[in-house]
Write a structure and sequence with these properties.
The complex is a heterodimer of chains A (317) and B (442). Chain A has 317 residues and is mainly α. Chain A has two domains: 37 residues, no CATH class; 227 residues, MetI-like (MetI-like fold, Orthogonal Bundle), CATH 1.10.3720.10. Chain A contains 13 helices and two strands, in the order αββαααααααααααα. Chain A has a two-stranded antiparallel sheet with strand order 1-2. In chain B, 45% of the residues lie in helices and 14% in strands. Chain B has a six-stranded mixed β-sheet, sandwiched between helices. A three-stranded antiparallel β-sheet of chain B has the order 10-7-11. In chain B, strand 8 and strand 9 form a beta hairpin. In chain B, helix 17 runs antiparallel to helix 18. Chain B starts with a helix and ends with a helix. Classes of the chains: A mainly alpha (317), B alpha+beta (442). The interface between A and B is large, with 44 and 42 residues.
């Protein structure tokens, strides 16, 4: 039986395989072409503003450039130098400690807030706004605010501690306390993470929770055996996003501590910035950027690869 | 709509969008070509107050040069008082080939710009337009001089003095600081004015400059008659490590660690941009003329300015601060840029610019600044005691400054006694290594 065709010769049914090659386009090819046309603006932007500069910076990392003279090719010298650069290792240490401390803390805190904001209470919308608002405030404004809250002489925290008879530490003025202070500060911007958790919580089917409570599970058991497993894709998403984000911390170092005291808050991106614009070592800064990119990429791949051991997808995974 | 028409209109739409994006800049460029010549001048001055002298000066300039328009690029970062943000933006523009025609350059970057050939020597145009070095404070004019050529016209300058809070001094029955006072007088006053409550300082005798090298370490070293760098800027051995310099730095660090008369750099940075002298938390502050306007307009603050104390050499010396205008080699409007540079050296510009800043021209200083702002008289009176600037000696001063800043930070936040000569020797080794690397790169 012949397949009915339209006057143009193409099959009238939406077959995905070419029955005839007249006019040269199957529906799938047509759709593919439409796809590329529609994403063309984004693609152009990506190539011009992301891929292009990335390739330039890769090339730059094999040169020495002080922005004033022409770049000079030096091979792998920048990368070799990095291995012997004590400040590079220090900045890596600071950033890694910060990331590995603030990410679990941030996730737990955001999850806790999301659970609280998923309860049936009056004025829930207002509470959700209030808890999201801090993450919207601009980085520099927040930095100034926290400089004051944690000021060792006249700040809010030490003032409150003094009422309890506890002599407050030097916070950002102390080489031991500066990084922990910034880790505490990172909780200010958990609003975004919280919202995503909220969405995840609301995706937990009510029937499952009901079934669990019918089986005699209390709140904690329900959370542990029903909610949490169903939340694991969201946790994974937030985890990857947070890791990538926290490794790129810059504002706090730049506006609050200048990497001090004594390099205890020398964040990687801040050190990169210093190399680029204070020491005029653009090539070295580019090399630093690519090393960071590689580290974050490897970490992300590790997290994603090991994720199927603990992430449970509702669709059957 | 059929698939064909939908496809066609979509393709046309995308094409139209791309064309529109390209047409924008082209249209603007066409417009510019028809207007008069416009030159860009970059600066880090900001705000309505900071930019007012520019607006007035440029209005005067454009009146006498009707075919030149001047655009001021004000680049600043309110959170950081250092100029790395300004330099980052300006250098990026220069590297992209779209740098300003006339650039304001701070003293610590004066040398890299010259050695890279990015700015042009001004000798011939200065001579052709009758600009005389003798009109300017010699030490200030010469900062813009490299290899026998004049590359910069000084915009203004500053030096270091000590502000003191009159109310606090009178309350403590101390004589007010005046010219001829020594570092012992200074220390005695600062100790008497440091007040602690429950082991916690609530008022410090002075806010020392911390790791701000020019006003702190360098000021003290020069007061003891020393220098930190060799004349050709290639080494610090024998200079930073000389007995005079070691004594000066030890004294400076003792002020922090032994006498506790000042908040440490770490503590000062926790106050962000708050001025402790203005907030009356310190009785003295060692700095330049920049905050005088703020202090003058504070009704609760009664203050005076004293020259730098006399050092062990028997002389009172002070450090210079400087900014200069230079012409970018890649300017497309050389003639207009030259006209602007000449104008910036004129008495007219100096007079307009003399709002709380210190003009580099002697006539403007005497006739305008000192009568109008008596607070500045102490700063000008030290003009003959200004030491030569060491920041322009090496190829890139950050090779020297970064290890020294770290040294001061380490020494002032140490909980155990510091072996200062050893610390200086270690830092000197690091600096010399940096300098050597940079030298062999060339």
């Amino acid at each position: 039986m012949a397949v009915p065709t339209t006057t143009s010769g193409r099959p009238a049914t939406g077959g995905t395989r070419a029955i005839t090659r007249r006019r040269g386009r199957t529906l799938q090819q047509q759709r593919a072409r439409m796809f590329y046309i529609l994403i063309l603006p984004w693609l152009i932007g990506f190539v011009l503003f992301v891929l292009g500069p990335m390739l330039f910076s890769l090339w730059l990392s094999f040169n020495r450039w002080n922005l004033l003279n022409l770049p000079v090719a030096i091979g792998f010298e920048n990368y070799v130098r990095m291995a012997h650069d004590a400040l590079f290792w220090q900045s890596l240490k600071v950033t890694t400690i910060y990331a590995f401390a603030s990410v679990p803390l941030g996730l737990a805190f955001a999850l806790l807030l999301a659970i609280l904001l998923n309860q049936r209470v009056r004025g829930l919308a207002i509470f959700r706004t209030i808890f999201y608002l801090p993450s919207v405030a601009s980085g520099v404004a927040v930095a100034v605010l926290f400089l004051w809250i944690f000021n060792p002489q006249f700040g809010l925290v030490n003032n409150l501690l003094s009422y309890l008879g506890i002599p407050g530490p030097g916070w950002l003025a102390s080489a031991d306390w500066a990084l922990p202070t910034l880790i505490i500060m990172s909780l200010w911007s958990t609003g975004g993470t919280m919202i995503i958790f909220l969405a995840g919580l609301q995706n937990v089917p009510a029937e499952l929770l009901e079934a669990a409570s019918l089986d005699g599970a209390g709140n904690l058991k329900r959370f542990r055996y029903v909610t949490l497993p169903l939340l694991t894709p969201t946790i994974l998403f937030n985890l990857v996003l947070l890791i990538i984000n926290q490794f790129q911390t810059f504002t706090q170092a730049y506006t609050m501590t200048n990497g001090g005291p004594l390099y205890s808050t020398l964040f990687y991106v801040y050190y990169l910035y210093q190399n680029a614009f204070a020491f005029l070592n653009m090539g070295y800064a580019a090399a630093l950027a690519w090393v960071l990119f590689t580290i974050v990429l490897v970490l992300t791949v590790i997290v994603l690869r090991t994720s199927d051991r603990w992430v449970f997808y509702q669709g059957g995974g | 709509m059929s698939t064909m028409t939908m496809k066609r209109s979509l393709s046309l739409g995308v094409l139209a969008m791309i064309l529109a994006l390209m047409a924008g800049p082209a249209g603007a460029a066409a417009q510019r070509a028809q207007a008069t010549v416009t030159i860009r001048v970059s600066t880090w001055d900001t705000g309505t107050d900071g930019l007012k002298p520019y607006q007035e000066g440029i209005a005067a300039f454009e009146k006498t040069h009707p075919n030149i328009k001047v655009e001021v690029e004000s680049i600043t970062n309110p959170m950081n008082t250092d100029l790395s943000f300004y330099m980052a933006k300006t250098l990026t523009e220069v590297a992209a080939g779209s740098g300003p025609d006339v650039m304001l350059v701070p003293d610590e970057y004066a040398r890299p710009f010259v050695t890279s050939g990015q700015i042009i020597p001004l000798d011939s145009i200065l001579r052709a337009n009758g600009v005389k070095a003798s009109d300017f404070y010699t030490n200030v004019w010469n900062i813009g001089r490299f290899n026998g050529h004049q590359y910069y016209v000084p915009k203004d300058w500053a030096d270091l003095a000590i502000y003191y809070n009159k109310t606090m001094f009178q309350k403590a029955h101390l004589p007010l600081p005046k010219a001829g006072w020594t570092w012992s007088d200074f220390l005695r006053d600062a100790r008497a004015l440091t007040i602690t409550q429950a082991g916690h300082p609530v008022q410090w005798g002075v806010q020392l400059p911390g790791d701000w090298l020019r006003a702190g370490l360098q000021a003290f070293v020069s007061s003891w008659g020393g220098q930190i760098l060799s004349p050709d800027g290639t080494t610090v051995a024998g200079y930073l490590t000389s007995p005079a310099a070691v004594k000066a730095i030890t004294y400076y660090l003792d002020l922090y660690n032994k006498y506790h008369i000042s908040p440490t750099p770490a503590i000062v940075s926790t106050f962000g941009s708050l001025d402790l002298f203005n907030a009356q938390k310190v009785a003295m502050i060692m700095t330049g003329p920049w905050p005088s306007k703020t202090y003058e307009s504070n009704p609760k603050l009664s203050f005076g300015v004293a020259p730098m104390p006399v050092g062990p050499t028997g002389k009172s010396v002070t450090q210079p601060f400087w900014a200069g205008y230079a012409i970018n080699r890649t300017t497309k409007h050389l003639d207009a840029a030259e006209q602007f540079i000449i104008f910036s050296a004129s008495k007219q510009w100096g007079t307009i610019d003399a709002t709380w800043s210190m003009p580099a021209r002697k006539d403007v200083a005497q006739e305008v600044s000192i009568p109008k702002y008596p607070i500045l008289s102490t700063f000008f009176a030290q003009a003959d005691n200004v030491v030569p600037l060491e920041d322009t000696k090496p190829l890139n001063f950050t090779d020297v400054s970064t290890p020294l800043i770290h040294m001061i930070d380490t020494a002032t936040s140490s909980t155990t006694p510091v072996n200062v000569p050893q610390l200086i020797a270690q830092t000197a080794d690091v600096i010399d290594a940096n300098l050597s690397v940079r030298l062999h790169q060339k």
